[in-house]
Amino acid sequence: GDQVRLRAFLYNPDVDGPCISIDTSMDDDARLIQHAAETLAPALHRPLEGQSLLLLGGPEMPMLGGELETAGATVHHLSCFEIEALPVEDTSLEAMSKADHICLASRTATRILSDLCNERSLQLAPNCTILVPGEHTASLARELFPDHQILLGEPPRSEGMGRIAYERGAEVVLALGADGGNLDGLEYLSEKGIVGQHIALYHSVPKTPGAEAIPERIDVALYLSPKAIEGLPPESLTAASKFLALGPSTGRVLEERVSSKGLGTPAQTSQSPDLRGILSLLIHND
């Protein structure tokens, strides 16, 4: 059927700027409305009121930070690594121009791909579908690639993008992201007999934040990527009451680190890399 597009927003008058938004399309309008309600409703009653959350990730405060603030939390952000773009060979550009499905690992990968189109005259195939791991990356991709279909992975991570590509009969699949990034989607396709290619567009350079940047009280330390754990490992956050990882790949690294160091602070993993997944853990356990 025809695709129905819905843009919905949740604003909070007490928060300067950030809000929770959804911009997605489906061919089932009832399912689309349900998806929007499930995305926006968890923050309505500010369930994280009074909680102090420390987000550990890259140089930019993620959009998730604004969503957590809208849900009532006091949010601090620490940059544990810097992003450096990598040189892209002409052969890689040619591969991008021929792909029928491109999996973008992050907003950073989305921006770099757009820069390549503008600066290196890269033209994606007209029928190329762009797959993304979550709503935030989807919003940016729709803005930068308005002529291409943007689809979310199901589940919303690397493996889910591979599943969607397979279900759509993909023939030439590229995964664009970080050097050493999550390749679960390509591995899934490989098991189905489809050979994909990973092209590293950037890498992360770890940095250790100064002790003065760490707040005295931390109810939850939320690691956004394995590189953040490398930059500021959990044993250095003695103020944290609990550790939380965003997504299974980060969760594996966090749980291994917490276990190997014998830390008494619990570590959990949000399988869904969004506000709903985080709230389901925090509210369930409080």
Describe the overall structure.
This protein is globular. By secondary structure, it is α/β, with parallel strands linked by helices. The strands form three sheets. The chain has a six-stranded mixed sheet with strand order 5-10-9-6-7-8, sandwiched between helices. It has a five-stranded parallel sheet with strand order 4-3-11-12-13. It has helices spanning about 30-40, 65-70, 90-100, 105-120, 135-145, 160-165, 185-190, 225-230, 250-260, 275-285, and strands at about 5-10, 20-25, 50-55, 75-80, 80-85, 100-105, 130, 150, 175-180, 195-205, 220-225, 240-245, 265-270. The chain has ten helices and 13 strands. About 35% of the residues lie in helices and about 25% in strands.
Short descriptors:
286 residues; alpha/beta; six-stranded mixed β-sheet; five-stranded parallel β-sheet; 10 helices; 35% helix
Summarize the structure.
The protein has 286 residues and is of the alpha/beta class.
